[in-house]
Amino acid sequence: MADATKSDLNVDDIEKQIADLRKEITRINKTVSARGAELVEDAREHASDMYDTASTRATRAAQQLRSQAQAVSEVARDNPGTATAVVGVIGLLGFVAGLVVGQALSDTPRRWYER
User: Fold this and answer.
1) Which residues, other chains included, contact 110 with Cβ-Cβ below 8 Å and sequence gap of 6+?
2) For residue range 35-87, what is the model confidence (pLDDT) as tens digits?
3) Is residue 1 predicted with pLDDT exceeding 50?
4) Closest CA to 97 of 109, 108, 105, 85
5) Is the pLDDT of residue 4 over 60?
6) Where are the domains of the chain?
7) In the Cβ-directed half-sphere of 80, how many Cα atoms lie within 13 Å?
8) Residue range 63-72, pLDDT digits in tens
9) What are the CA-CA distances from residue 113 to residues 91, 101, 109 (Å)?
10) How far is Cα 24 from Cα 48, in angstroms, rounded to an integer?
11) What is the SS3 assignment for 110?
12) Mean pLDDT across the chain, nearest whole number?
């Protein structure tokens, strides 16, 4: 009989420990869930702040670009000959740069005057 009483106590103790562990796990889950929600909210606020900053900077950059493009357009309208010459020189420089890059990337080095 003493054995039966001992085993009943052990089973009761184990069941109590299991119940305590379940309560502890539930408490830990709630804590983790709350902390996760806080982290998500912090990340959302940080992303919103970054978006607002980037949006403001992009708006300022677009306004600056627009005003500079308008100034260049006015200068080109006032001086059409100069504007044509500048565009021609830029095109020529682009063509030469293309030739140089093409030669640099080709497998066999050749000069423009060689066949």
Assistant:
1) 103
2) 999 999 999 999 999 999 999 999 999 999 999 999 988 988 998 898 899 99
3) no
4) 105
5) no
6) 2-78, 80-115
7) 1
8) 999 999 999 8
9) 22, 17, 12
10) 36
11) coil
12) 87
Q: Residue written as tokens 């909210």?
A: 41
Please state the length of the chain.
115
The tokens for 50 are 């970054």
Rounded Cα gap, residues 74 and 83, in angstroms: 11
SS3 100: helix
Residue type, 70: Q
Please say whether the beta carbons of 76 and 83 come within 8 A: yes
Start-to-end CA span in the chain (Å): 111
Element (H, E) at 31: helix 2-78
